[in-house]
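Hi F.,

I've been meaning to write this up properly since the lab meeting, where we talked about keeping a consistent format for the predictions we share between groups. The idea is simple: the sequence comes first, exactly as it goes in, then the structure tokens exactly as they come out, then a line or two of notes. No screenshots and no reformatting. I'm using this chain as the first example so we have something concrete to point to.
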Amino acid sequence: MTLKEQFIVSFIDNDRWLLLLKGLRVSFTVMLGALLLGIIIGILVAVIRTSYDQQRQGKKKSWWLTALNGLMKIYVTVIRGTPMMVQLLIMGFVVFAASRNLVMIAILTLGINSGAYVSETIRSGIMSIDPGQMEAGRSLGMKYPTVMKDIIIPQAIKNILPALGNEMITLFKDTSLVTVIGLADITKVAVQIQAKTYQALMPLVGIAIVYLLCVMIMTWLLGKLERRLRKSDRR
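Output, unedited:
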């Protein structure tokens, strides 16, 4: 069978390209949901760990902040130390075994995984901000959470935007792992097409090209955003 015939059988016959579009929509839904959840978790973890680290030397450390910091360290260590596929299997077949909302399970698992990595990125961004800005805010009567929310975190996010962009791209590619819980993302659809047509080359090469094009577009958009932010800084 020629490449043209393989293409027609894999994507044109029975409108199989529509299945790929549906799978791509699932992949983007999981990526965006997981990225949002990961950023929220990452900010919370980073703020707790930074608050613990920034406690004044010689002053008695808060017991509850020490306990929270310990829990955050355990969370980061466990999540970063175990494969995402194993986490998906545990969430899909153990924790949420009775649920059939596979999209929710995928978003939750990838978001929790992403949060561990994003937290370290955001923490490094917060630590890169001049400590004098925190002291200036506190001297004006602002509370610690207010200074963090209005002054420190916005600057930190701008500094770590390239790293967050890389995390988004990584998440998009990692959505291919959700096939292990049965979610019909674009990779799962390609496997289903392969099973129906007995053509292994075209479906897999096809989704590889789709992933590549999506990553190139996201990289281009992130580059434009970074350039715009640099222009605003110069002003």
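Notes:
The chain has one domain: 3-234.
The chain has a mean pLDDT of 87.

If this format works for you, I'll send the rest the same way.

G.
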